[in-house]
UniProtKB/TrEMBL annotation, chain A:
One of its GO terms (cellular component) is cell outer membrane. It is found in: Cell outer membrane. Residues 375-714 form the TonB-dependent receptor-like beta-barrel domain. This is TonB-dependent receptor.
């Protein structure tokens, strides 16, 4: 009996303990528009139990003692909340929580300096993330959104779709790599590039200045831009259309559907069209005598640009064997008319280019493969698209759109209908293993192939000379991350860069007309780079970061083999190398609760060797590249942001770069170069942005918000040529550009109407010498966003 | 309300302030006052700082180039474009843009009464490969190396700085061998224009290759009509002149001498079986003088001519590649007597010469006509050298600090 009693008590107490252990809280976190919020931490005060919400916004906290509790909910970008509740024995409480946007993040149109993603900023790398969602109502494309980040300068040759030159902390062109969801964008062709991708495609854009984390792979020397697309698994539709000056029309459609069984379909489609017929100030040459009619204010007439792209993915998510398996295709085309050459003096009226992209792709991701903590991902794509340059009209135009027609087979510049495919393939694999809370390892490999083939229907006999040119590139990286504590983590990594180029050159063995033979040539590189990155939180709101990398950039296929238009290949190019040092600090502070301030500062030093630099070929007919100069750069950039309640936010950022020529002796010279330690010319070195936004809540109706935004861009004047040389010099003048916008959001962001005025004061803008950019322009945008959970 | 209007006013003020002070970045001309030239001499030296790429030369001026030094550091006029070529004619200094096939500004400079070089006009012209003074005009030729089958000839009025006339010449028909006639240069001979050319494939990644490496051609055009009158041919050496290089010189007697580098190529191979040599067309004739053949390769011990500069009195300065059989690399200089066919390496020249100032625009004789000037760019610095024409002796003159000398011209004001 006694024993029974004891047993019963025991069982009961175990049972009660068991039941007791079963007490839990779960639910879903949503924002004002009903969208789930992932990555929110929910903590039980005075206890150890906590949970982090998953991608769908769900959280689940187990093992809570019954009784009174306070839940602490905090997420970056949202107001923290406290919830008091009483939990009964064994109760499984369902609690859905709506979070309010916090002040500094409510901004609808300005880039907020502090990132939306806590994870991104917690990295030891020098990274700035743009929360693209905040820009969905604006008419920006990715390149213009990036232009507002400190350290970044995007230079364009004209209007929509024009050629752009991206510079990040003084690194330009191919030194900075672009990624789409971690996959290098090298092989996407002209139909899918930064200057034609609308901001709505991205969820966020990460800008890595200097040292690039190992999982991004590839041979980024000076930094990387990673565009993270919407990975939301819900069913949603986001449609927008904008129109404005210069007959500009742009639309985007992003939609996704995920069934309960994990079947998913994602479609991103976008279109851009513009006549780019903005007015410019030019001297117009007489079509016959070449005499100038000075300072005419006339419209551009041959600058239409349009592109259309669809990206579709089908697959499954959330399976045991595949967290994600997507098969997709990117289809797109672009058309661009060429109005001018490198200077406004050369005018064209018929020359144009077109290209397309047909790129099947596959993405596979699995977590906890074989053992817990072992994650694997694999991506692959192959671009079957072509590029074509069409110049067949034997005419000479002037700015009045008059032309002289000549007889015979000629051209405006170089007669061509050359059409080529680069047949780029790319595969990336990533294997990561979290051994314990403190130790994790990562292995990353990026492999790419290139094989060019092309022909020109105007010159069918030339085909036999066109031998394939092939490149195989492989970059293998191994990284280790040590998370000592919440406060301190460090990553070290080593990378192997290898490249093999094979090509054949035609020659005439007998000297007789038409006799052709081929010689096979091969060249290869193998280099090892390494680096370290570390971050320490002095206080939760005060973070310091430091990193170093010895990195390489392998010559691009175009640099090796030319672009068949203006660039001649140089198969003897060596990889470019650089030592990068970065130091960053960020700090947030509240003053009397309502005033919030954040400070970010970065210091960097680069020491680059064998800079791949453009020069003219020996008979000065085309451009080619050479390993010519050594360059150092000491740069600083900083940003300060301020916000007051939910009513106002403002920020300012500045960048200064001290790029100096470090080539003491030019090739074959015994005298010190006159340009030694001179500033690198034709490169902006002091520039900044300022922005401010005012918010009016519940305008006309509850849930409707009116936002008034202002953005100011400043670029200091810089010389076209070396500063130390000459006394009568050519200069790219100081630039101011002011944009204003008004956004009205209805029903918590479901419907949005925006109007924008770009270049409000109609300032003259030039990013490149004499190449004028659009003056004052107006745009309007409507957007509909629907999200079903 | 009052407060808001105050802010609005402030905002409008900022916007206005930002728009008020834009600068233009275009070139502009200066006013020029005509004057009677006093016969004073000014040398214009064009130099590119060593190590620069893709930028045009700086224009430097000096009264005397026989000594002293000059530098591009903090001195000189910058020009737009990447490559420029120069001609002086009718008291004007013309700077022509080589813009990779695009049209560009030709800038015209003059010297003011005070001796300052100022830009007085600019007009639009095509990128050309040939530029020559013919009568009172400049003759420019745009020669496509692929695609287009027509070369365009432009006649420029030197006084007015504008295009006087234009002419198309089908260079595939002219070559008549399936290739293209690529004019190397043009020279006024009497009242005609002699334009030597090289035959090139113009395609297939080997535009400058040819299957006809052992012939020379000079096309003869009337002026100003620019009608093709004849092609003078020979098979004793290879093509005359070189890409962007003047192959012909007219002596005081009116005889025409032309050199061949014998550098015809096919793919990466040099395929000419003929020697680098000088041939001649006698005054008043339009045939090669078959009794004259100056085998320079043999006389020099196996060297090839890179370019030439006619000095005076049948004396020609030859720029030779510095290794026997070479077709590129450093230079070695020689003076030859065209009539007696004597060949002498010059003395007083630095060991290794990377390049010289442009030989096509040679009006840089001293006032007494006894001394010629040439810019020599060497690994240890760049100098203008004085050439004593009678003896062929070189002595260093002005040092050009840091800049590669691309041309020296003389103007009288």
């Amino acid at each position: 009996m006694h024993i029974k009693k004891i047993l019963l008590t025991g069982i009961l107490s175990i049972l009660s303990l068991f039941l007791y252990a079963q007490s839990s809280i779960s639910g879903k976190l949503k924002d004002a528009s009903g969208a789930p919020i992932p990555g929110v931490s929910i903590k039980v005060q005075h206890g150890t139990a906590y949970a982090v919400s998953n991608v769908e916004g769900y959280y689940h906290i187990k093992n809570i003692h019954p009784g009174k509790h306070t839940l602490l909910i905090s997420a970056v970008g949202f107001k923290s909340q406290k919830k008091e509740l009483t939990l009964k024995d064994g109760e499984q409480l369902q609690l859905n929580i709506d979070l309010e946007n916090s002040i500094s993040e409510i901004n609808a149109v300005s880039v907020i300096g502090r990132s939306a993603s806590q994870e991104v900023n917690r990295q030891a790398f020098n990274v700035t993330a743009i929360d693209a969602k905040k820009l969905y109502n604006s008419t920006l494309d990715l390149s213009h959104a990036l232009d507002r980040v400190s350290g970044v300068r995007v230079r364009e040759t004209g209007g929509l779709g024009s050629r752009m030159n991206f510079s990040l902390n003084g690194f330009t062109g191919r030194q900075v790599k672009f990624f789409l969801d971690g996959v290098p964008m090298d092989n996407f062709g002209s139909s899918f590039q930064l200057n034609n991708i609308p901001i709505n495609l991205a969820e966020r854009v990460e800008v890595y200045k200097g040292v690039v984390p190992i999982w991004l792979g590839a041979d980024a020397l000076g930094g990387a831009i990673n565009i993270v697309t919407n990975t939301n698994r819900n069913t949603f539709v986001d449609v927008s259309y904008s129109f404005g000056s210069f007959n500009t029309h742009r639309s985007t459609l992003n939609a996704g559907y995920t069934s309960k069984t994990g079947f998913t379909v994602q479609v991103n489609a976008f279109q851009n069209y513009s006549d780019n017929n903005y007015k410019v100030w030019v001297n117009v040459a007489d079509i016959n005598t070449g005499d100038y009619y000075p300072k005419q204010h006339i419209k551009r007439f041959h600058d239409t640009y349009h592109n259309e792209t669809v990206i579709a993915n089908v697959g499954v998510v959330g399976k045991k064997w595949a967290d994600k398996l997507l098969v997709g295709i990117t289809l797109g085309k672009n058309y661009s008319e060429i109005q001018t050459g490198a200077r406004m003096v050369s005018v064209f009226g018929d020359w144009h280019r077109r290209g397309d992209i047909v790129m099947p792709s596959i993405k596979y991701q699995v977590k906890d493969m074989f053992v817990k903590g072992l994650n694997f991902s694999l991506t692959g794509n192959y671009n079957l698209g072509y590029e074509q340059n069409i110049d067949t009209m034997y005419r000479r135009y002037n700015w009045f759109q008059q032309y002289k027609q000549y007889n015979g087979k000629g051209s405006e510049r170089e007669r061509s209908m050359y059409k080529f495919r680069n047949n780029n393939g790319l595969a990336t694999a990533n294997l990561s293993y979290q051994l314990s809370q403190r130790h994790s390892f990562i292995l990353n490999d990026v492999f790419s192939t290139f094989s060019r083939s092309g022909k020109d229907e105007l010159f069918p006999n030339d085909e036999k000379y066109d031998q394939p040119k092939k490149v195989r590139k492989n970059i293998l990286g191994l990284g280790y991350k040590f998370d000592y504590s919440e406060k301190w983590n460090t990553s070290v990594f080593v990378k192997n860069y290898s490249q093999r180029n094979s090509y054949s050159q035609s020659y005439n063995p007998s000297g007789n007309w038409g006799d052709v033979a081929y010689k096979n040539q091969e060249s290869s590189f193998n280099k090892v780079g390494y680096g370290v990155a570390s971050t320490y939180f002095i206080k939760p709101s005060l973070q310091v970061k430091g990193s170093y990398e010895k990195s390489y950039r392998l010559p691009e296929t175009e640099e090796l083999f030319g672009d068949l238009i203006n660039l001649e290949g140089n198969v003897n190019l060596k990889p470019e190398s650089s030592n990068n040092y970065n130091l960053g600090i960020s700090y947030q502070v509240n003053i009397r609760k309502d005033h919030r301030l954040s400070f970010d500062g970065n210091l960097l030093y680069r020491d680059a060797k064998d800079f791949i630099r453009p020069m003219l070929n020996p008979n000065q007919t085309k451009q080619t590249n050479g390993n010519l100069a050594d360059v150092t750069n000491l740069g600083v950039d900083g940003e300060v942001r301020y916000s007051y309640k939910q009513l106002f936010t403002a920020g300012v950022n500045m960048t200064y770069q001290n790029l100096r020529n470090n080539t003491r002796f030019e090739d074959g010279q015994k005298e010190q170069s006159p340009l030694y330690r001179d500033r690198i010319p034709n490169m902006p070195y002091l520039f900044g942005n300022a922005d401010a936004s005012l918010f009016f809540h519940n305008v006309l109706k509850k849930g409707n918000t009116l936002t008034l935004g202002y953005n100011f861009l400043y670029v200091h004047a810089y010389y076209l040529s070396w500063p130390s040389q000459g006394d009568e010099k050519l200069e790219i003048p100081r630039q101011f550009c002011q944009d204003v916008n008004l956004v009205y959001s209805l029903a918590n962001g479901r419907y949005n109407i925006a109007v924008e005025c770009k270049n409000l004061a109609d300032n003259r803008l030039y990013d490149n010498f004499t190449l004028q950019k659009p003056g004052r322009a107006f745009y309007a945008k409507v957007r509909y966003f629907f999200n079903k959970n | 309300m009052k407060k808001i209007s105050k802010y609005l006013f402030l905002a409008a003020g900022i916007v206005f302030f930002m728009s008020a002070c834009d600068k233009e970045d275009t070139l502009s001309t200066e006013d020029f006052k005509e004057y009677e030239p006093q016969g004073r001499t000014k040398y214009i030296i064009t130099a590119t700082p060593v190590g620069t790429t893709g930028i045009a030369d700086y224009l430097l001026t000096a009264d005397d180039v026989s000594g002293g030094s000059i530098s591009t550091s903090g001195n000189g006029k910058e020009q737009d474009g990447s490559y420029r070529y120069y001609l002086t004619h009718k008291g004007r200094f013309f700077s022509l843009l080589y813009g990779q096939g695009n049209p560009g500004d030709v800038t015209t400079y003059r010297l003011t009464e005070g001796g300052k070089l100022v830009m007085t006009r600019f007009f639009q012209a095509e990128t050309v490969q040939v530029l020559a003074k013919v009568q009172d005009e400049l003759l420019l030729m745009k020669v496509p190396r692929s695609g287009n089958e027509n070369a365009s000839f432009y006649r420029i009025d030197a006084l007015k700085s504008r295009v006087n006339g234009e002419k198309q010449v089908n260079i595939v028909q002219l070559a008549a061998n399936g290739e293209r006639a690529h004019f190397t240069w043009a020279t006024q001979v009497g009242n005609k224009v002699f334009a030597p050319y090289m035959s090139i494939k113009g395609c297939c990644g080997d535009a400058f290759g040819t299957a006809y490496p052992d012939s020379s051609w000079i096309a003869v055009f009337s002026y100003p009509d620019l009608n093709l009158e004849k092609v003078i041919r020979d098979n004793r050496t290879s093509f005359i002149g070189n890409y962007f290089n003047n192959g012909l010189a007219v002596t005081e007697k009116g005889d025409v001498y032309g050199y061949s580098p014998a550098s015809a190529k096919n793919g990466s191979q040099y395929t000419s079986t003929k020697p680098s040599a000088i041939v001649r067309v006698l005054n008043g004739t339009t045939e090669f003088d078959q009794s004259y053949f100056f085998n320079v390769r043999e006389k020099s011990g196996g060297y090839n001519i890179s370019s030439q500069m006619y000095l005076a009195n049948n004396k020609m300065l030859l720029m030779m590649y510095d290794k026997p059989g070479a077709f590129n690399g450093n230079l070695k200089l020689a003076v030859v007597d065209l009539v007696s066919q004597t060949f002498d390496w010059v003395k007083g020249v630095p060991e290794s010469v990377i390049s010289t100032s442009a030989p096509y625009n040679n009006n840089t004789l001293s006032d007494d006509g006894k001394t010629a000037f040439i810019g020599l760019n060497t690994p240890s610095g760049n100098w203008i050298y004085k050439i004593d024409i009678a003896s062929g002796t070189f002595t260093p003159g002005m040092k050009v600090e840091g800049g590669t000398i691309t041309a020296i011209t003389k103007m009288i004001y």
